């Protein structure tokens, strides 16, 4: 009886290990980072619960279709982050991730640690390293967004710097810092002319002509002034070839000012924003309207519009989420639901089809193969040009999937008995931190009333 039990335990443990990678259940989070490499939507960092740290790197496979509420997350066991960070920025250079800034905690001591501000992840070897950066001193920042041009230069505008980590107070900046990934140098640009107002939590997107479009977020007119939301019509443009700023007043529909929202740039020059919330120094913030809007950057004067069906089947008001564009789909992950003030479920993502301008529930990797020039009969069936070899690899994948699925199902049944007690306990822990200043806005200003 003893040996069979040991054998059973051994098999069980192996299956448990496979299971933990295959049916990975990621902690809910906000203020995280997400990037797409190699048909994988990678998620990492973010704020979960100050006494519950997570360093995992995991992904959603975008090479297959899925329903938005039936997700399979996969853990990359070697990809664990070297630090705990949230409100940082992550920029993709080929298949290398540059992770910069944010609030950073040392994994060993669990103390704030700003000794290294840039980390690099090499996707092909699944390893994190600390690049040796020359040039100017890297400024510590939170709540900024980096964008990369096609020469491998990462531009990082302003952001927030917490000077008191107990009260999370600090100042906003309006400098432009450049990380050259080719030469591994860091430069704080000296720019003359119209420098924009210091800000953070803005949207940043680089157009194909090399102009970076910034708008939204929080502003501070001078170092002693209160923080306020920036008008969504106030567009700040940075020309990466001339290294010059200019401003533009956008026209079109009224879009509420907001922070902690997401933006994606479509191949045809529209910036689609989603979610966010109002600024609050006191903790009483509200949702914003509309939840989704589009900025047309093809016009000489950029123009806002609200797609007519964008409220239909819309997700709830969310902030602190991320958005990524993959073919025709904008994929919204995690964040906090403003109605319930709870973290979004990790069991679902939200999908917006940028071609049909509708929220949808099914993701399909080949959606953009739909020939939209044919008469649309409403069936919306993609024209599939699946080759024979693709079909056979599909059935192989289905077979494999079914095999793994059966194994997973059996182990899940075993595991359920083991985790039921644990789950009951941890349900209580899944509430968002309502009182912690970490979830609250950066730099509640001393002079606020
Ligand atoms: C804010 O800036 C100061 C001065 O550069 C730096 O010492 C400090 O670490 C920064 N704070 C954070 C939270 O990055
Ligand atoms: C930081 O903020 C806390 C809480 O408001 C305050 O008690 C403390 O004195 C501040 N520290 C400094 C160095 O200003
Ligand atoms: C679909 O979109 C991706 C990226 O936007 C592009 O690389 C690919 O060529 C497109 N496929 C078709 C069939 O249009
Ligand atoms: C759609 O199909 C028509 C007819 O075959 C073709 O002329 C057109 O270029 C196609 N459009 C796209 C976007 O593929
Ligand atoms: C954070 O995690 C700790 C430890 O699991 C738990 O006691 C606490 O209730 C959690 N806090 C919140 C706000 O979820």
UniProtKB/TrEMBL annotation:
It comes from the Eukaryota. Residues 432-449 have a biased composition (Polar residues). The keyword Endoplasmic reticulum does not apply. The keyword Hydrolase does not apply. Residues 1-23 form the signal peptide. Keywords: Kelch repeat, Membrane, Repeat, Signal, Transmembrane, Transmembrane helix. It comes from Diversispora epigaea. This is Galactose oxidase. PANTHER family: KELCH DOMAIN-CONTAINING PROTEIN, KELCH REPEAT PROTEIN (AFU_ORTHOLOGUE AFUA_4G14350). Residues 366-389 have a biased composition (Low complexity). Residues 365-389, 429-449 are annotated as: Disordered. The chain crosses the membrane at residues 396-420.
